[in-house]
Design a protein that fits this description.
Layout lengths: L11 H6 L10 E7 L6 E3 L7 E3 L1 H13 L4 E6 L19 H12 L4 E6 L12 E3 L2 E3 L3 H15 L3 E4 L6 H11 L6 E8 L6 H7 L19 H12 L4 E5 L5 H10 L4 E5 L1 H12 L5 H15 L3 E4 L2 H9 L1
Parallel strand pairs: 1-3, 1-4, 1-12, 4-5, 5-8, 8-9, 9-10, 10-11, 11-12
Antiparallel strand pairs: 2-3, 6-7
Helix pairs in contact: 4-5, 9-10
The chain binds ligand PBG.
The site of ligand PBG has 11 residues, from helix 6.
Amino acid sequence: MIRRPRRNRKSEVIRTMVKETFLPIEKIICPLFIIDGKSQKVKIDSMPGVFRYSIDEASKEIEACIQLGIKTFILFPVIADTLKDTVASESVRFDNLYLTAIRTFKKMFPDICIVTDVAMDPYSSDGHDGLVKDGEIVNDATLPILAKMAIAQAEAGADILGPSDMMDGRIGFLRDALDEAGYTNVGIMAYTAKYASAFYGPFRDALDSAPKSGDKKTYQMDPANSAEALEEAELDYNEGADYLMVKPALAYLDIIKLLKDNFQIPIVAYNVSGEYAMIKAAGMQGWLDEKKAMIEMLTSIKRAGADIVITYFAKEYAKYLKE
Ligand code: PBG
């Protein structure tokens, strides 16, 4: 035998030397759920180890993350039902929870990068990402609402905006609105190929944001489609997106690769709540080694072509890298 691939696997040193994929902590974005109140750190049943934090507690969490090398955070607000309405008006109130959180964190930690969520669902009494009229999620009337939300977030100090709503034309609409308001340096991380996925279940528990009626299939993509992801990517790119995101990640590694092979801007993968919950649940049962599964999953997402990974394992992964 001339070719013996096992020679390159014979020792730890050699294995590390020939390793093709590294995922350093600088490539990780940590999601944080923000709730109202003081000294609150509330468990999420379907996401063991992940919490909803009041702003003061979240600040401590950010500090701990910074110590571990995590510098980018994506924020999601938990909004009381009493503040929700059909047009998501709470989302642009100057002193609301979300905008206050952004301002507080940027003031306390000027060097971190804050990514926001632009979509109506946390604030919508209908639980949809867009405006609902006669049972339909209407596209064009949603855009100005998203634009107002985006400008409020930019004004609060957000570095990058993350439109997760999947309305058509929203990237261009937001880019125009931001530029016109003078926020030419605020970036857009487009949720480009966002699939109508069962893996968002735990997130909707965390935010209590599940749709009140129907599902999200008229705006989020069909898991069976990949050519459509290319179309979405082309649109988002041409409309001015700075990042293209694929979400979820694990069941969509081919989509990550597809976008990576066809576009030159950074590709982001969102390793979503259900992907986290799956590994946690099996780990707690003793059915698999949680830590090894986490490393394998995150490495695979990187190997597929993701430049940046959003994951609820951020802190645990950072701790593993420090070991
Ligand atoms: C909604 C939004 C969702 C997630 C991020 N933004 C859920 C949804 O589309 O219902 C899911 C993230 C996760 O599951 O971790 N704008």
